[in-house]
């Protein structure tokens, strides 16, 4: 980059330098692929310590604006949207990366819809429908603890709750701890909000203690955690890990903890929370989209009284409330024995089909295990992108782990596979195709 462009970057602190680069990018002075000045050159240009420029570039990288390429320098990234969940459009391949529930295992809405007629809801009425609130109180209290003060509200899904909770607590460039690998929509929401994503590694017991401690030391003001069926890994917090994480958080009682229990009624695992009785700022979000369908854009949120009050200000009746017709429909379904039987059947189906496919992979020399959730997180001995290319030639469209990564390099050798809707024959064929794809990639690298 020439001297004139470098000279336009201003600031004497990391935040000021990062803001300057961001503003120049927004004004079109920088384009995707442009290389920023080296740390040494910019530090000399601005008359600051090299560590100040390093910190600025780190902030920009964590917000997704730039990427470091080692000796090739720090470059402006392509600000294309983060990959999203759901079906891939415009493909003839069999899509095994959707992350979708099985439509055949979503309760039928017909009967419940017919009984929704009632008096109209007018401006100024409570945000949450009274019947739904009465049902949800014990459901949420059981998870957070009966003695813990809390208030409920309703949002247009889990990501709507996440966006509003972060907006009421944070400012631009504030740091947010995210699991790494991370749920795509959470990552997208944090980046779009202008917050700084700080990765916390995930292992077989959930969010790691060392990772959370490092994130807190880095100054995060919010922690987003998936206690069960973490997406994409399928891991769930163990009781021991949750206890250890609570100990780490004990010294940070005003850091906002957001727990996304997205799989809730479908989960096969117990719920273990990061939130201790003494923690001051917290929220538990339970969406209905996995068991009542993605189009049921509704999540129930339990929070400490202060956080709930702040959230309520962003959900004023007459502006952004969630339709009471939708709330009544959700209530009708979660209180229907027939609908709940479908949900229980779905939970058993997802667990059984994922376990069966993991066994197929293991039998073919690719050790795999089924976690909780709609998909499998399969480790490979070779890069996932190479295997994905091989699978495309065999008629499959898979999702590679690098789409979910903040910094976790190991995830680049993972596939996230949604296989619960495959027939037995198709599942066997896919398992064989994955094993053969791995062999083809390995042989090609040997040559």
TrEMBL record:
<comment type="similarity">
    <text>In the C-terminal section; belongs to the class-I pyridoxal-phosphate-dependent aminotransferase family.</text>
</comment>
<keyword id="KW-0805">Transcription regulation</keyword>
<protein>
    <submittedName>
        <fullName>Aminotransferase class I/II-fold pyridoxal phosphate-dependent enzyme</fullName>
    </submittedName>
</protein>
<keyword id="KW-0032">Aminotransferase</keyword>
<keyword id="KW-0663">Pyridoxal phosphate</keyword>
<keyword id="KW-0804">Transcription</keyword>
<dbReference type="InterPro" id="IPR036390">
    <property type="entry name" value="WH_DNA-bd_sf"/>
</dbReference>
<dbReference type="GO" id="GO:0008483">
    <property type="term" value="F:transaminase activity"/>
</dbReference>
<dbReference type="InterPro" id="IPR000524">
    <property type="entry name" value="Tscrpt_reg_HTH_GntR"/>
</dbReference>
<keyword id="KW-0808">Transferase</keyword>
<dbReference type="InterPro" id="IPR036388">
    <property type="entry name" value="WH-like_DNA-bd_sf"/>
</dbReference>
<dbReference type="InterPro" id="IPR051446">
    <property type="entry name" value="HTH_trans_reg/aminotransferase"/>
</dbReference>
<dbReference type="Pfam" id="PF00155">
    <property type="entry name" value="Aminotran_1_2"/>
</dbReference>
<dbReference type="Pfam" id="PF00392">
    <property type="entry name" value="GntR"/>
</dbReference>
<feature type="domain" description="HTH gntR-type">
    <location>
        <begin position="11"/>
        <end position="79"/>
    </location>
</feature>
<dbReference type="InterPro" id="IPR015424">
    <property type="entry name" value="PyrdxlP-dep_Trfase"/>
</dbReference>
<keyword id="KW-0238">DNA-binding</keyword>
<dbReference type="InterPro" id="IPR004839">
    <property type="entry name" value="Aminotransferase_I/II_large"/>
</dbReference>
<dbReference type="InterPro" id="IPR015421">
    <property type="entry name" value="PyrdxlP-dep_Trfase_major"/>
</dbReference>
């Amino acid at each position: 980059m020439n001297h004139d462009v470098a000279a336009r970057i201003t600031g004497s602190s990391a935040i000021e330098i990062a803001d300057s680069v961001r503003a120049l990018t927004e004004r079109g002075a920088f384009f995707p692929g442009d290389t920023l000045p080296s740390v040494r050159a910019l530090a000399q240009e601005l008359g600051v310590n090299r560590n100040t420029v390093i910190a600025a570039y780190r902030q920009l990288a964590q917000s997704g604006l730039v990427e470091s390429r080692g000796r090739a320098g720090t470059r402006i990234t392509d600000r294309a949207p983060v990959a999203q969940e759901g079906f891939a459009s415009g493909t003839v391949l069999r899509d095994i990366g959707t992350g979708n529930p099985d439509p055949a295992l979503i309760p039928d809405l017909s009967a419940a819809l017919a009984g929704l007629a009632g008096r109209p809801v007018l401006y100024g009425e409570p945000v949450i429908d009274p019947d739904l609130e009465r049902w949800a109180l014990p459901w949420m209290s059981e998870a957070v603890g009966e003695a813990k003060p809390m208030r409920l509200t309703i949002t247009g899904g889990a990501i709507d709750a996440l966006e509003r909770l972060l907006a009421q607590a944070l400012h631009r460039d504030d740091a947010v701890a995210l699991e790494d690998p991370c749920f795509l929509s959470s990552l997208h929401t944090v980046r779009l909000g202008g917050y700084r994503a700080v990765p916390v590694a995930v292992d077989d017991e959930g969010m790691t203690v060392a990772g959370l401690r490092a994130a807190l030391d880095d100054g995060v003001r919010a922690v987003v955690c998936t206690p069960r069926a973490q997406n994409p890994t399928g891991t769930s917090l163990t009781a021991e890990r949750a206890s250890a994480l609570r100990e780490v958080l004990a010294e940070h009682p005003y850091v906002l903890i957001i727990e996304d229990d997205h799989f809730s009624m479908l989960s096969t695992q117990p719920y273990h929370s990061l939130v201790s009785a003494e923690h001051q700022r917290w929220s538990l979000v339970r969406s209905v989209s996995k068991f009542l369908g993605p189009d049921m854009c509704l999540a129930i949120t339990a929070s400490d009284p202060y956080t709930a009050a702040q959230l309520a200000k962003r959900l004023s009746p007459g502006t952004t409330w969630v339709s009471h017709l939708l709330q009544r429909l959700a209530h009708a379904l979660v209180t229907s024995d027939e609908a709940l039987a479908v949900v229980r059947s779905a939970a058993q189906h997802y667990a059984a089909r994922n376990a069966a496919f993991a066994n197929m992979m293991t039998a073919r020399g690719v050790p795999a295990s089924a976690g909780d959730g709609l998909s499998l997180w399969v480790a490979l001995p070779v890069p996932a992108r190479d295997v994905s290319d091989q699978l495309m030639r065999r008629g499959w469209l898979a999702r590679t782990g690098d789409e979910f990564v903040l910094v976790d390099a190991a995830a680049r050798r993972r596939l996230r596979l949604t296989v619960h809707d495959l027939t037995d024959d198709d599942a066997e064929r896919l398992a064989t195709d994955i094993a053969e794809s791995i062999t083809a990639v390995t042989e090609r690298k040997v040559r």
